[in-house]
Specification:
The chain is of the alpha+beta class. It has two domains: 4-84, Glutaredoxin, CATH 3.40.30.10; 90-200 and 216-225, Up-down Bundle (Glutathione S-transferase Yfyf (Class Pi), Chain A, domain 2). Helices cover 48% and strands 8% of the residues. Strand 3 and strand 4 (65-68) form a beta hairpin.
């Protein structure tokens, strides 16, 4: 297997890939992490754009080959380590495979964009419009959490009875801001699920490296009353 180099930033989209790599470490995955300080704009530096022309994290080098996009990176890692069973394969039956794919695509296409709108409302657009963006986003955020809470009343993990890359992409989003964690904790099945995920040794390894400990931001407080 190649050695991996992860380019990312603490408590961001790259945390999902860090977590998957930590999960795969007992199976022999080796990796280094190169910090790309998003607050300092390092993702727009020419040296980084040469790796990822989109100017975003994560980027993962598979040996010398850089790959971008969280879903693509995660899927390639799951394929590289089939014994980890981080993906549901066609061999496990059509229903299980289809449900896994539906869930993964929902996380990538429906959940992550809502998270980004919430977190970057004042950065992707004008700050004076951020409040309106978040008011629009909040019902969608709650609807997503309610959807997963209902599913987690039936299965231990969001795509079935074992953790898959869908879980390692979804679960860290609740650490992106303290307010997200507070809202998620209002859904009992989701709260219990996050506790299970965070009890994993691989998450503890991520915490040791990234020090994820989000503080409640002033801008979040009014939305927690809605």
């Amino acid at each position: 297997m190649p050695h991996y180099t992860l380019y990312g930033f603490n408590n961001s989209a790259s945390t999902s890939i860090h977590w998957i790599l930590a999960e795969l470490a007992p199976l022999g995955a080796t990796y280094d992490i190169v910090d790309i300080n998003l607050r300092a704009g390092e993702q727009k530096a020419d040296s980084y754009l040469a790796l990822n022309a989109k100017g975003r994290v994560p980027t993962l080098k598979f040996g010398d080959k850089p790959v971008t996009e969280t879903g693509a990176i995660a899927a390639l890692l799951a394929e590289a380590y089939p014994d980890a069973k981080l993906a549901v394969t066609p061999a496990e039956g059509f229903d299980a495979h289809a449900f896994y794919l539906e869930t993964l695509v929902y996380v990538l296409n429906s959940h992550l964009p809502v998270m980004r709108d919430w977190m970057y409302a004042g950065k992707d657009g004008a700050e004076e419009h951020a409040h309106g963006v978040r008011l629009f986003t909040l019902p969608r955020l709650k609807a997503n959490f309610a959807f997963f809470d209902k599913q987690l009343g039936k299965t231990a993990f969001i795509a079935g009875d074992r953790p898959t890359i869908a879980d390692f992409i979804f679960a860290p989003t609740c650490t992106w801001a303290k307010g997200l964690d507070v809202i998620a904790a209002r859904y009992p099945n989701l709260k219990a699920y996050l506790a299970r995920m965070r009890a994993r040794d691989s998450w503890k390894a991520v915490l040791a490296r990234e020090g994820v400990d989000p503080q409640l931001a002033d801008w979040e407080k009014p939305y927690l009353e809605l």
